From TrEMBL:
Name of this chain's protein: Bacterial sugar transferase domain-containing protein
Keyword Transmembrane among record annotations: yes
A GO CC annotation given for this chain: membrane
Classification via InterPro entries: Bact_transf, EPS_sugar_tfrase
Biological source species: Candidatus Harrisonbacteria bacterium RIFCSPLOWO2_01_FULL_44_18
Family: Belongs to the bacterial sugar transferase family.
Segments forming a coiled coil: none
Length: 445
């Protein structure tokens, strides 16, 4: 099931690579006819380097996210913006990195950009139509009804490009009369996946009925598993304690061994390279607001242990005269340009020190204040599990969920945090860092 998604993404990548090199070949043909071998080699390696970076830019920009593959205004804007960024990168490399990258005449680059831009948009539009209109690779039968199944059905129906189709839905669950005719329904609708909530799967009668149909080649999938694939978060309402024992108790030994020294190295390098910017921010805060430049606050860290977190102060010194408060979207306590610092996360630069001290990771669930943790632990099941690992400066919830300051928002973010706990890896950490960098530029506007 997850393989289908990866195959579709791989097809997009392969298509982009083919169009990149085909556009280069057409550019050289238009300029030189059948170009000599020296001309081909002269262009091949510089453009190959550019292509590798472009594919990364496309990935960061979400052009390989199946949920965005729709021929609408949002896609056209996203595609245009990402292509402009990629083109700007190529122009900077070829025009300013001399003599390493010399393409003569440089008009070749602009011919290539025009050819690729047009052909790539045509390819993407064709693929989007094909993915949305083509026959779904997975035809699904769902047993049971609750808010989680409704969210899943709505998302699948709105995004046919994901390759799923809801063919039958037994909303009454175990009481559904159609359950007795399961075999006929599977055959009539060519169903290959049955999605079942955990509590129904445990029922002996339901298990027997489903078991009888395994010979039809069906795949039985937990509702929580399909929800995780489609939404990239974990549906807490569908989980029981045994799920956490099976999915969170396992150790990621190599990952844990290498993560800490890599983070120390990166925090040191980032700190040195951005120190001039940090000094400017500190001077600005001192000019526009009285009080200290650095703001300290207690946060709950790994295993719930409290630690002191450091930030550039973006609020008035008396911001919490009435007690601890969640920061709001348009908070009146914020100093001039404080919102820009917060949205761009530049206010978190001092937290590099927390990384060096071993209190924070570069990537992990964002730490909350102990006062809030105490209340949220009472209101939200499994909330304390986010403290199993060291908290981070950025995290999966931060790049996938809007800014929020309510119990409902904390619940949603926890579903993303649990997803990270289950799937954490070097690759996922790199993805989060890359997408965080993108957010630094988009959210600060």
């Amino acid at each position: 099931m997850d393989t289908t998604v990866k195959l579709k993404q791989s097809a997009l990548v392969v298509g982009d690579i083919i169009i990149l090199y085909a556009s280069l070949a057409l550019t050289l043909f238009l300029r030189y006819g059948w170009p000599a071998e020296e001309i081909v080699k002269f262009h091949f390696w510089p453009f190959t380097l550019i292509f590798a970076v472009w594919l990364l830019i496309f990935y960061i920009g979400g052009l390989y996210d199946l949920r965005s593959l729709k021929n609408d205004v949002d896609f056209a804007r996203r595609f245009g913006a990402i292509l402009a960024i990629a083109a700007l990168f190529a122009i900077i490399v070829f025009y300013f990195f001399k003599p390493t990258f010399i393409i003569t005449p440089r008009v070749n680059l602009f011919i290539f950009l025009a050819i690729f831009g047009l052909s790539s948009y045509i390819w993407r539009t064709f693929y989007n139509n094909l993915a949305s209109a083509g026959a779904p690779s997975d035809k699904i039968l769902i047993i049971g009804y609750n808010q989680t199944t409704q969210e899943l059905v709505d998302q699948i129906n709105q995004n046919p490009q994901l390759g799923y189709e809801i063919k039958f839905w037994m909303k009454e669950g175990l009481q559904d009369k159609e359950l007795e005719h399961l075999s006929q329904i599977i055959l009539a609708n060519q169903i290959n996946i049955i999605v079942v909530p955990a509590h129904i799967k445990k029922n002996s009668n339901a298990a027997k009925l489903i078991y009888k149909n395994l010979v039809l080649g069906i795949e039985v999938v937990n509702l929580a598993d399909l929800y995780e694939i489609v939404f990239q978060k974990i549906p807490l309402a569908e989980l029981e304690e045994v799920w956490f024992l099976e999915n969170l108790a396992k150790r990621h030994r190599l990952y844990e061994i290498f993560k800490r020294p890599i983070e120390i190295f990166l925090a040191t390098i980032i700190g040195i390279l951005t120190l001039p910017l940090a000094i400017l921010i500190a001077l600005f805060i001192k000019l526009v607001s009285s009080g200290s430049v650095i703001f300290t606050q207690q946060r709950a860290g790994q295993n719930g242990a409290a630690f002191t977190i450091y930030k550039f102060r973006t609020m008035r010194p008396d911001a919490e005269k009435d007690g601890p408060q969640w920061a709001q979207k348009d908070d009146g306590r914020v100093i001039p340009l404080g919102n820009m610092l917060r949205k761009s996360h530049l206010d978190e630069w001092p937290q590099l020190l927390n990384i060096l001290r071993g209190e924070l990771s570069l990537v992990g669930p964002r730490p909350e204040r102990p006062e809030f943790v105490k209340n949220l632990s009472k209101e939200i099941p499994y909330y304390d599990l986010r403290h199993l690992i060291r908290p981070g400066i950025t995290g999966w919830a931060q790049i996938n969920y809007r800014y929020g300051a309510s119990i409902e928002d904390a619940y949603e973010k926890l579903q993303y945090d649990i997803y990270y706990l289950k799937n954490r890896s070097v690759v996922l950490d790199i993805l989060i860092v890359i997408k965080t960098i993108r957010l630094l530029f988009t959210s600060a506007k």
